[in-house]
Amino acid sequence: MSLSAKATVTPDGSELVVSLNQGIVRVKLPIELTNKELAVYKRICIGKATKEIAGELGITERATKFRLTRIFQKLGIQNRHEILSMELTP
What is the spatial distance between Cα 58 and Cα 32, in angstroms, rounded to a whole number? Predict the structure, then answer.
């Protein structure tokens, strides 16, 4: 069974909606992210690696890591695993 995942942002920008094979998860966005940061954030939430994200967005891995660092700073966290363990709402 392959994992199918898609992430979108609600029109008001308050939630990230992640659709997985098993169902839908809504992640409250606690902060405002730039469009570039949001593009990276969405991919982190569905488990993409830095290299995959860079390839999908057509940017360097260094630029991807920079955006990740900015996201971590805004969220007050240290790594991508903390993003994935943030409070989820059904």
Answer: 23
